[in-house]
């Protein structure tokens, strides 16, 4: 583990949720949602198309993954949205064809 205890990924650092009744859930379309205590959406992983539901898994290496229940296909994962902490096996990549980058983002 990381010592001292360190936050390694944050969905909404500009608008942190302090409500103790907030929760992380998966919508009917398979999207990962962070809801405030009044069930308002604070953050969403984006639209997905999970045909028969989805599930969230936290891997042994620290990657939060949303998978389609039927196909097992990865719909969303936290390693594709890096923050300012690099975990072992989290990729830093650059796709020449698409221009897509996975980079660390410094918190000011």
Give an account of the 3D structure:
This protein has 108 residues and is an all-beta fold. The chain has a single domain, classed as Agglutinin, subunit A (Orthogonal Prism). Helix content is 0%, strand content 28%. It has no helices and 8 strands. It has a 3-stranded antiparallel sheet with strand order 1-2-3, with no helix packed on it. Strands 4-5-6 form a 3-stranded antiparallel sheet, with no helix packed on it. A hairpin with a 5-residue loop joins strand 4 and strand 5. The protein is globular. It starts with 22 loop residues before the first strand and ends in a 6-residue tail after the last strand. The mean pLDDT is 81. InterPro entries: Bulb-type_lectin_dom, Bulb-type_lectin_dom_sf. Keywords: Disulfide bond, Glycoprotein, Kinase, Lectin, Receptor, Signal, Transferase.
Class in CATH? Mainly Beta
Helix content: under 10%
Q: Taking strands numbered 1, 2, ... along the chain, how are they ordered across the largest sheet? A: 1-2-3
Q: Please state the structural category.
A: mainly beta
Count of helical segments? 0
- How much β-strand is present in the residues? 25-35%
Largest sheet: 3 strands, antiparallel
Total strand segments: 8
Compute the gyration radius: what is it?
15 Å
Assign the CATH superfamily: Bulb-type lectin domain
Overall 3D form: globular
End-to-end separation = 25 Å
Domains, number: 1
